[in-house]
Amino acid sequence: MLVVVAVKPAGAAAGERALAEHGARVVERRSTGGGPLLLFAAASVVEPVVAALRSAGWAAVARPEAGGHLSAWRANTAPVVVDERLCVCFPWAEFDRASAPPAVEIDPGRAFGTGAHPSTRLLLAELARRVRPGDTVLDVGCGSGVLAVAAARLGARPVATDIDPGALAATARNAAWNETEVGLCEALPPGPFDAVVANIGAGALVDLADALVARTAPGGWIGLSGISPAQVSRVGTAYGRPVEERRDGEWSALVVSVA
Questions:
Q1: pLDDT tens-digit series, residues 37-58
Q2: Neighbouring-strand partners of residue 224
Q3: Is the domain of 122 the same as that of 224?
Q4: Are 168 and 142 in contact (CB under 8 A)?
């Protein structure tokens, strides 16, 4: 196993010092085509080095060196391409950013949301399809901040909210890493917003129906995800407005139009 640390090019020297302080030796430095620089380092025991680096705020992971395990690791860390406007990946993903759509790089930490889950992909696709520069977007139950940061990358002005302080912290880190601005709120802000997105499950979506509609500007839309096809009718009825269903395998999302 190797330690991989994703760093901004200007932070390469600091990253190498951090690795050395924990007994890891850099064996390769790899460019990602305009994205982060990847530092590959050898260590006698990899996992404690990764844990120490992550505790210190570095985007560090353990990576297999070769063979089938490396192929599987690369497959699991490949970018999720949404469309020509957007892809989502880990900071340490090994691909050429210059030949891909604009990347949103997400280190989820302990928060939910990497872009790979169908419930997240459904809303990412709606954001890419509908959001225009200057739109205001509210991300309810932001988790890692993937939806809010993606909205910012698309030119929107997003606000993220979550009842978990750890999720807000993860969103702040990911917004900073991507050099985007995301407002953070512990409670639902008053709005109104051009778009509201929530990937939080059927029960919470039903409970929040009136609150989310009230925070959506006339002519705006609400993206609801984290539900199964069997829950579509229940959730859609709670909103009492025209809805469109999107489906990805065993997961569904709804787009609610607000007049």
A1: 999 999 999 999 999 999 999 9
A2: 198, 254
A3: yes
A4: yes
Domain count, the chain: 2
**Could you report the per-residue pLDDT of 102-142, keeping only the tens digit for each?**
999 999 876 566 668 999 999 999 999 999 999 999 999 99
Two structure tokens written together for 18: 């951090």
231: three-class secondary structure by DSSP:
helix
Structural domain of 247: 118-257
Nearest to 92 by CA among 145, 34, 39, 14: 39
Taking only the tens place, the pLDDT of each residue in 141-188 is 999 999 999 999 999 999 999 999 999 999 999 999 999 999 999 999
Contact, 217 vs 191, CB < 8 A? Answer: yes
Preceding omega of 192 cis (within 30 degrees of 0): yes
Q: Is residue 157 part of a domain?
A: yes
Look-up of token digits 């030796």: 25
Which of 23, 45, 75 terminates a domain? The answer is 75
